Amino acid sequence: MKAWLLKDFGLDNLVLGEAETPVPKAGELLVKVGAVSLNFRDKAIVDGIYEPHRVPKPLIPVSDAAGTVTRAGSTAHQARTSRISASVRRCRVALLNT
């Protein structure tokens, strides 16, 4: 999948690249993202001023997204074709720590 990846802190280190498409585990959803917002927290993460010791790299810096569910884990309670919006605090896909 294509994703904006933060390889290191600083806007120059945010690059469009390829990331492995994750397979959702039990209770998780895989969402094809159609829109995101760049908010203050995302910019602070990119700049390295928001909890830099907790930021794994590479990272997809996104706090808010909207899209369509394409797959659901075994215990997820969401229809496969649902459209959703999400405010992400910490998720496996966004952190790329699958």
From TrEMBL:
Residue span(s) of domain Alcohol dehydrogenase-like N-terminal: 26-78
Family matches, as InterPro entries: ADH-like_N (IPR013154), GroES-like_sf (IPR011032), Zinc_ADH-like (IPR052711)
Pfam families: ADH_N
Segments forming a coiled coil: none
Highest taxon, organism lineage: Bacteria
Gene3D superfamilies referenced in this protein's UniProt entry, alphabetically: Medium-chain alcohol dehydrogenases, catalytic domain (3.90.180.10)
Protein name as catalogued: Putative alcohol dehydrogenase
Source species of the chain: Pseudomonas savastanoi (Pseudomonas syringae pv. savastanoi)
